[in-house]
Hints:
Layout: H1 6-21, E1 26-29, H2 41-58, E2 65-69, H3 72-75, H4 78-88, E3 93-98, H5 101-105, H6 109-119, E4 123-127, E5 130-131, H7 148-151, E6 152-153, H8 162-171, H9 190-209
Parallel strand pairs: 1-2, 2-3, 3-4
Antiparallel strand pairs: 5-6
Helix pairs in contact: 1-2, 2-4
Amino acid sequence: GSNDFDGEVSWTITAVKVASALKIPAIRIDAIMHGEHEVPMEKNATVFADAMARVIDATANCKVDLGIENHGAIGNRPEFLDKVLSKVNSERLGVTIDTGNFYWWGHPLSKVYEIIEHFAPYCKHTHVKNIAYPENKREVHRDIGWEYEKYVSPLEDGDIDLLRIVKILKQAGYNGDFCLEDESLGKYSPEERKIVLKKDAEFLRKICQG
Length: 210
């Protein structure tokens, strides 16, 4: 059924062991679950936490952290991430913080900073992206994914103060990578994409040093 994770668990255990052999410090875990809309959030969190606990137990000798990305409908709900983290209660399990996805989900901009501050001590990995919504949509609750393809933007052009996020994460003790993810590239020609990505990389390098 939709909650039978045996295949995924064994695949993830293998991935952790490979990451360990390659000295990769963290891997991303996708929070999207089949049939997640048909069962209560509490049940989803329990099933997901059980699967994570099995992976962590089976890889106890691996120095690899697991970061659940705030991804999809359920993964951007702070109460889901909190429940999974507290149920598993392992220092190796944390969050892959995607800087754009809480905003994509519909959380108002000021709440995005609060949520990221809350999860910063659990940060294992990052995806750095941005969205530029119209001014009257920034501080209201929007539908999930509201006009995302229209408003997703290069890193420097969005509403989220990414320097502020970098500082929040560093102050919480995060010293891992900051990974560039620009989903606005579809708006540009192949030639323009190279220019946008170079600007993104320069901007990210600058704020990581700032």
